[in-house]
Amino acid sequence: MRISRRAAVAAVVLATVLPLSACGGGSGADSTDASGKVEGEITFQTWNLQANFKDYFNGVIADFEKKYPGTEVKWVDRPGEGYADKISADAAGGTLPDVVNVSPDLVAPLAEAGIALDLDKAASKYREEYLPEAWASHQVPGAEGTFAFPWYLNTGPMFYNKRLLEKAGLDPAKPPATYDEVFAAGLKLAGASGGKVAALANVPTIEDFGRYGGALMNDEGTGFAFNDAKGIELLTKYKELYDAKALDPQALTATPESSGHKFLTESVAMNPGSALDLANFKKQAPGLYKNIGITDQVSNTGKANMYVMGVMVNAQSKRKPASVAFAHYVTDATRQMEFAKQVAIFPSTAGSLDDPYFTEEDGTDETRVRVAAAKSLKTAVNYTPVLFSEQMKTELRNQIAKALQGKQSPKVALDNAVKACDRLLQQS
Amino acid sequence: MKTPVTPSTATRPTADGVPGPRSRPAASGPGAPGGSRPGRRISRHLPLSPWLFAAPGLLVVGAFSLYPFFSTLVNAFTDRRTLVPGTFVGLDNFQELLHDEMFWIGLRNSTLYVLGVVPALVILPLLLAMLVQRQIPGITFFRSAFYTPVVASIVVVGLIWVWMLDDRGLINSLLEAVGVGKVGFLSDQWLLLMSAMTVTVWKGLGYYMIIYLAALANVPRELHEAAAVDGAGAVRRFLTVTVPAVRSTMVLVAALASVSAFKVFSEVYLMAGPSGGPAGEDTTLVMLVQRVGTGLTGRVGYASAISVVIFVVTVGLMLLVLRADRKEDA
Fold first, then answer.
1. In a domain, B66, yes or no
2. Do B81 and A106 touch (CB under 8 A)?
3. Chain A 312-371, residues with CB within 8 Å of chain B CB atoms
4. Residue B295 is assigned to a structural domain of this protein
5. What element of type H or E holds A72?
6. Is the pLDDT of residue A49 over 60?
7. Do A360 and A298 belong together in one domain?
């Protein structure tokens, strides 16, 4: 069968022009006005929470719909793996749900693209209900406003293997608290075990540079600065650990899962974790559990790192009053407190951490970890810059790996990492 | 079996082979004589019918193959990001590629993957197919066993190999037991790449074995018997009878294996981690596309430029293999 020339030309033109059409347009920021009647159907997206907390969220949604007759909340949950990709596909396709569970690094590009609603304008009346640091955690340098309600906080203790420490001649009652103490202990552990037991399973992350006391970004938030003297010193110490096998040889390719596995198999003696890990240790390694010690995060600044979750409202939502009302409802003090009793997380609402639930121990490990974490959260800092993207994490990690392998000096590695991250920052 | 042809639609050739008068389109229009006859109506709608039958398939191909392909091609010349519409930047992305260290690492690793994996996947499945072609008791079990890795999930396969190759895994424990000591299969950049190649070969053996089995079934037994009578040994018979007989299949396998090896992602991603091994030294080109182009800050334009390079190299590989085959034929 012959295809007419006109049809062929039309097909080629369409095939060329259609993709071009995808380059045009752009969402642009919609109105930040969220006043009006709370009504209509909205969609709420969470991040890997349905499997374990289905009843809790169904209860929250039912209570909200009862409080605001005429509203209907459709709940969707996405798996943890590929969550950022799912959000980016939805955002690019204009199908992002009305209310979305985000972390600060996810909200930054959405805010820059005008997709995240500015809550300083749309919901400023709720601001006082939250801890000031938590509210500020979803602010983006270079963009005016706050782009998500702070939700739950978390911080992790350092878990350590008491038996391995004791075997290396260290006092399990006095675990390392600062980086210098960790480095000294690491060399002892590796030496005593002939290189079979390492202190740590991971290369340093941006949070480590923060807790070591170095600068992460310049004051204007326009460039990275972790290649300062402190940063170089930290990486030099890690290099010494790596050479002495006090840093696990597979640390260069480690993931949080693989380093957790190393800790469970007693290849490494120390592993940062969260309050959630304690239950896993009990279940997966009951033999190891009795040897596990729990201490504060290693820090030279005296401040722990804090992880913040947020709830963002889609600026393009057609039901902004209902979306803002629901995002606030999920993150208010009552709901956060209820959620904290379901799982080891901590509320970001003002005064909640003074509740006896977070201040009184009952002699169990669980309450001990909970009380210690809640205490450290009062002074904790979110050391991860909101503009630090996944690609920047990879750049930093790769440059650190080169330094540890001896392919370049710590200074050159960090200079290169800063240069690459600054380039990515300018391109965003 | 021939399809019966109805007289109303048949083209009746004349003596010299030229289509006869009945092959001409029927006159159309209400006034045309005989226009209401069913046979003529079918004839009038014939030109559109194939398109209607093909439409669902064409739509799927258009939406899921052609559109993304042309979209990638166009994006490669823009600075498009995930959430930011792009502007035309000419060849900037391709110029940046030339100075991107990670691109050259990716190109090196993908090329090494082709060089390491393709010869093994052309030869080993052929030997395996010859082995399981024999009709001996229990051979069906072995055929199924060799094919099992093909149907197994690559994620599961990858994790199993990671456990085996870990510092404290099965293989290192065995090596330590025999006094060799630990080998850094998952921490040395070259060993990691070779480990991933091993998994690719192991997983692909069964698939290509099936293709070879079909080809071997068409090799006349008489040729082997004649060669044996002439005194040819097993190796000689393999080289002079089997290989020439399945040569076109070997070319097909080489082409398929080259393309999939150059586009390798899962095995390396699972074994070397998302960062692509120590310092990203095991990153392949497809991994780089995923790293650069996805996420909320993904550089879609730049990732598209890398994809265009992958496409060009892949087509080049196919042409190279086909050209080599044609030369052999000549």
1. no
2. no
3. none
4. yes
5. strand A71-78
6. yes
7. no
CATH assignment of the domain containing A150:
3.40.190.10
pLDDT of residue A120: 95
Q: Between B168, B187, B297, which is nearest A252 by CB?
A: B187
Nearest CA in chain B to A26: B85
Length of chain B in terms of residues written: 330
Assess if residue A328 is contained within a domain.
yes
Q: Give the model's pLDDT for residue A361.
A: 87
Q: d(Cα A64, Cα A71) in Å, to the nearest integer?
A: 8
- DSSP conformation class of A24: S
Look-up of token digits 């190299």: B313
3-state secondary structure A304-332: CECEEEEEEEECCCCCHHHHHHHHHHHHC
Q: Which residue has the tokens 């985000």?
A: A102
If asked whether residues A278 and A409 sit together in one domain, one would say yes
Domain that holds residue B241: 92-329
Which tens digits make up the pLDDT trace of A333-390? 999 999 999 988 899 999 999 999 999 988 887 788 888 888 888 888 889 999 998 8
User: Side chain identity at B294, as an amino acid letter?
Assistant: T
| Partner A, chain B 195-224, Cβ-Cβ below 8 Å | none
- Looking at the fold, whether A258 and A218 belong to one and the same domain comes out as yes
Q: Do residues A302 and A379 lie in contact, with contact meaning Cβ atoms separated by under 8 Å? A: yes
Residue from B297, B299, B307 whose CB has the most chain A CBs within 10 Å, to mutate: B297
Query: Which domain does A349 fall in, by range?
Result: 40-154+306-374
Of residues A171 and B135, the one with the higher pLDDT is A171
Are both A277 and A244 inside the same structural domain? yes
> Which residue in A has a C-alpha nearest to residue B169's C-alpha?
A265
Q: How near does any CA of chain B get to the CA of A25, in Å?
A: 7
Beta bridge partners of B19: B13
Section B12-33 average pLDDT: 39
* Angstroms from B67 CA to nearest CA on chain A: 6
Please tell me the total count of domains within chain A: 2
- Best interface-test mutation with A: which of B80, B275, B308 has the largest number of A CBs within 10 A? B275
Chain A residues inside the 8 Å CB shell of B47: 1
Q: What is the pTM of this model?
A: 0.80
Whether residue B70 is contained in a domain is answered as no
Nearest to A109 among B272, B276, B296 (CB): B296
Q: Which of residues 25-54 of B touch A (CB under 8 A)?
A: 47, 50
- The count of other CB atoms within 10 Å of the CB of residue B204 is 22
Task: State pLDDT tens for residues A218-227.
Answer: 988 889 999 9
Residue A252 included in any domain: yes
pLDDT tens digits for A187-242? 999 999 988 899 999 999 999 999 999 999 998 888 999 999 999 999 999 999 99
Q: Is residue B18 part of a domain?
A: no
Q: Closest-CA residue in chain A for B77?
A: A20
- CATH classification at residue B122: 1.10.3720.10
Residue A12: exposure state from Cβ atoms within 10 A (0-12, 13-18, ≥19):
exposed
Residues in chain B with CB shorter than 8 Å from the CB of A20 are 74
